[in-house]
């Protein structure tokens, strides 16, 4: 029996593409929301969840960092998916026929230049693949969808324009979540440790908490803050560092962090995707 991996969106969404590329051995399970995808893993309807966390053009995916800490799940891997956005239309349509294009708001924001150039009005849809399905259902030459080529295949649409994203390195990062953590060292590219924390209510607490990573030579690759329960005075941080919790340098850094915080929770230990460092090298060459 084939295991399943849950993702947000319809078949043909970029989350579906991520599942196919990262875990082709598993059956993709479409879910209407990230909450449903997480719940599918919690309930055992899927072994893993493929959750989008950030895009190189649009930034972090809204609300996901609020969902992850309370999910009860653990990050066991990451996957970087090169997002090629395509204008899809019904069979027989041509690019000049299209007057409006439907997609998820995140995708609409990633190809503003193309839409302006061709005088195409953006229409907000629930998700990318769902927009493609809707365009196929309506059958109007003047309406297109912004989605993947996989969606074009699934919903029998024509690709009217390929790779129309504003930035040629447009990439979405996903994390793969499971019910149980995996602390084993895996892969040749090094390990990433992710955690959340809240600093104590003392002067310069965040500055002091970060000092342990500097003095112990631990590279912090991500630090993001967000409010808790809509409270301006309660801030939680999500962080990722290079290394494994068993590394002595990481142990010392986390011990110092613990001293200046009132809450630390390990979110996951996982191998770095090789494309993480490819993206870094490309950025340094610009």
TrEMBL record:
Residues 4-179 form the Prephenate dehydratase domain. Residues 194-269 form the ACT domain. Pfam families: PDT. The record marks 172 as: Essential for prephenate dehydratase activity. PROSITE patterns: ACT, PREPHENATE_DEHYDR_1, PREPHENATE_DEHYDR_3. GO terms for biological process: L-phenylalanine biosynthetic process. GO terms for molecular function: prephenate dehydratase activity. SUPFAM superfamilies: ACT-like, Periplasmic binding protein-like II. Its EC number is 4.2.1.51. InterPro entries: ACT-like_dom_sf, ACT_dom, Chor_mutase/pphenate_deHydtase, Preph_deHydtase, Preph_deHydtase_CS. Pathway: Amino-acid biosynthesis; L-phenylalanine biosynthesis; phenylpyruvate from prephenate: step 1/1. GO terms for cellular component: cytoplasm. Gene3D superfamilies: 3.30.70.260, Periplasmic binding protein-like II (3.40.190.10). Transmembrane segments: none annotated. This is prephenate dehydratase. It comes from Roseisalinus antarcticus. The lineage of its organism: Bacteria, Pseudomonadati, Pseudomonadota, Alphaproteobacteria, Rhodobacterales.
């Amino acid at each position: 029996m084939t295991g399943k991996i849950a993702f947000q969106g319809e078949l043909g969404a970029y989350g579906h593409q991520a599942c196919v590329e990262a875990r082709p051995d598993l059956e993709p399970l479409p879910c209407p929301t990230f909450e449903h995808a997480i719940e599918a893993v919690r309930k055992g309807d899927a072994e893993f969840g493929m959750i989008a966390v950030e895009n190189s053009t649009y930034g972090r995916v809204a609300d996901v960092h609020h969902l992850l800490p309370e999910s009860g799940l653990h990050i066991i891997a990451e996957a970087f998916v090169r997002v090629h956005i395509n204008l899809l239309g019904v069979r027989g349509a041509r690019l000049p026929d299209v007057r409006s294009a439907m997609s998820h708001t995140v995708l609409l924001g990633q190809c503003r230049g193309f839409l302006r150039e061709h005088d195409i009005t953006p229409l907000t849809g629930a998700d990318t693949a769902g927009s493609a399905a809707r365009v196929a259902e309506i059958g109007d030459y003047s309406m297109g969808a912004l989605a993947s080529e996989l969606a074009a295949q699934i919903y029998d649409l024509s690709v009217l324009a390929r790779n129309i994203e504003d930035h040629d390195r447009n990439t979405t990062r996903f994390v793969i979540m499971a019910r149980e953590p995996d602390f084993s060292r895996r892969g040749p590219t090094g390990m990433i440790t992710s955690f959340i924390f809240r600093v104590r209510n003392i002067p310069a607490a965040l500055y002091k908490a970060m000092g342990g990573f500097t003095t112990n030579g631990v590279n912090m690759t991500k630090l993001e803050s967000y409010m808790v329960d809509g409270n301006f005075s309660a801030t939680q941080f999500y962080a990722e560092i290079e290394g494994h919790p068993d590394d002595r340098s990481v142990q010392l850094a986390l011990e110092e962090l613990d001293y200046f915080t009132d809450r630390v929770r390990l979110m996951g230990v996982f191998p770095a995707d090789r494309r993480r460092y490819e993206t870094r090298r490309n950025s340094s060459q610009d």
